[in-house]
Amino acid sequence: MNTPAPVFEARRVSKSFGPVSALKDVSITLFPGEVHSIIGENGAGKSTLMNIICGRFQPTEGQLFVDGKEVHFHLPKDAQAHGIAIAPQEISLVPHLSVAENIMLGAHCGPALSIDWRKTRAEATRHLHEVDNSIDPAARVSSLSKAQQQLVQIARAAATEARVLIFDEPTATLTYREEETLMSYIEALAREGRSAFYISHRLDEVRRLSHRITVLRDGVHVGELAPEEASRERMVTMMAGRPPKAGAQPLRDLPSTDTVLKVEGLTRAHEFRDLSFSLRKGEILGVSGLVGSGRTEMAKCIFGATRADAGRIELNGKPVSFRGPLEAIRAGVIYLPEERKQEGIFPLLSIAENTGLPTLDRFTGLLHLRNRDMMAEVEKLAGQMKAKFNSLRDPITSLSGGNQQKFIIARWLMRDAHVLIMDEPTRGIDVNAKFEIQSVLRKLTEERGLSIIVISSEMEELLDVADRIMVMHEGKVKGAIDRREASQEGLLQMAMS
Amino acid sequence: MASANTSELSTPAPRRQASLLSRFWAWEGSGVLVALVALTAALTLATDNFLSAYNVSVVLRQAAFVGLVALGQTLVLLVGGIDLSVGAAAGLSSIVGAIALTQWGIHPYLIIPFTMFFGFALGALNGVFVAGLRLNPFIVTLATWEIFAGLTLVITKGYPIRPLGDQFGIFGKGEIWGIPVPVIIFFASAIFLIWMLRQTRFGRNIFAVGGNRDAAILAGIRVRLVEFTAFGMAGMFAALAGILFASRMDAGQPSVGEGWLMGAITAAILGGTSLRGGQGSIVGTVLGALLLAVLGNGTVLLNVSGFWQRVIVGGVVLVAVLVDLLRRKD
User: Fold this and answer.
1) What is residue B8's predicted lDDT score, i.e. its pLDDT?
2) How many residue pairs from chains A and B have C-beta atoms closer than 8 A?
3) Looking at domain B52-329, which CATH architecture does it have?
């Protein structure tokens, strides 16, 4: 049997940033028509490797080959010239331009000088429709949801007619339906003989899609698996270097029957309609739904960031109507947004400052801030949450995503919170950190009597952590079900009913 | 909007057939156009000579000089930069152009391209620092502003260079079919830029770089070259304005361009160009420049003290920003 020549090869590639070595001696190949997944925990070097392949970074050592010939990429356009394109993890689009133009960015059709707009738009639409046909190519990118933007990015990578496509966490923002379309799209690409590197934290996806799975850990290539031998447990063990912590939080009966938050008939035009539900003391309520189901909009409304058109909200038996987040926070209702980077952290400030910032009033002395008291309290909470850090004075950006999230939760525990609403609390966080955060949430409900609403598009996550799962679809509550009786299929059916 | 059925929530972004009015309102330049029309109407009623051929040509000529500078400024703002040195670049270029004409014997017809080339070089110097070395454009151009203004004084010792001769005077003073030449050049430049921003790769790349630099890099756009060229063109248009003004005054004056910086930025902002880059239009800038000229002219016609003019312009800018805020909320 003769094996086809690899379309791409990275040989003994290393990359260091100053003294920090992000990638050590990693070799990887990609054959025509192959989907090759790269998995690993955050900081394992997946993105660094992909950034080298797509020409964003230059390797400190090692060689790259395209079709067996050595290549040197100085800029992404060099990689593109060799048929390599990336759909990056972070949304990287021009917000004020149309979807069509974003797809064709830097590749407008037309004769030498002038752009042929008709042809450019038609091209863009063709590529877009391969990935998704609900997005209007004439719409401005800024008017799209995150998931739609992600799909536009994928269409853009595909539009380059690249032979090697890199998908960096493409499904992190997507929900079932879109994910399904994307999966079949990538499968179709592979059938056409194009190849892909695929990065994802969703291991069932990886198993379904890949022809080969490479595991990275701490910048080192720790193994390669065929999809048949890649059980979930095996993958997690290789990624973490130790067996996975147990998955789901144990089922339980809530100690208290008191209702903390009661929502009745909450309505906001174009967002959600007639929402009614209640949240018990110490309960974790999961909210499952597609993007556009109104789940985030509901959270923002309860938090006072937007105003409801109709309906009432009761907190501990008293009707409330928050005129803004500040009032909600003072009443002990906290919302942790989905975009941790954009809305959650202050990147220039230290861990301690990030955690203590909203509670500075508690540490204000006569003329100064009682920094030491604040540090002590942050440290205590960090211990409770098992957060890993060197010094609380380090910038928060020095932490991994999971640890950042822990400090953001800690931030609100410095106040007396009753209700915590978390939007996609573990998006883009690796398996073990995910489990740790879920354990932290569980512990908080038990030890502090906190009630938590977890909004997630990952059903698995809700089935792991929630006591009860509420399904939202098209702005309406479709039902709520105890975790004991819930299954992925059941939830899906509930959403579609 | 209130009539939309909430059960249609699922369809993402319902494709409403946008009315002409709402589409007009969504355009960045809508506010300034409305203001310009309203002000023109008011001045026509309040004075008897506002729409006279003579006065219109005065207003247009006034708009042309600052407007040319504003066109270049718009390009720089669109790539996400700012150029504070344009006024001083206009001054220095016009002096160098005047010297080239009077002392180096360059043919009067070649003086304009020569000066524009020189202006491009001045702007390119900003471009090297901003695009090449990734320095903050505000600081870089604050420094080059001083340098250009200082060099102008070093070269001229504060005295104008004159006379420039009749043959050269045609560019600033001449008329074609009754329209002042600078006005024709201004509109021709605007049309060229509208075409460039709409129809060329370089033009589209300007929006891409200003809208999201990282995305542009990933898309394989030569981001630095785009930024560099935008700064160069800002210098070039400033120089064009400067040398046309010199031609009109029959003198290279060291003070040329002193007041143009604020006018240029104001015109662009009035026209809806965003200071954060990626958003704006040439048509908006042209309207902004016209609005400023009409305002200035109106205060004169209405016998308002010239001192008040700046107060009024400042107020108009604030109103424009507020209108823009309302527009975005819609």
Assistant:
1) 37
2) 101
3) Orthogonal Bundle (1.10)
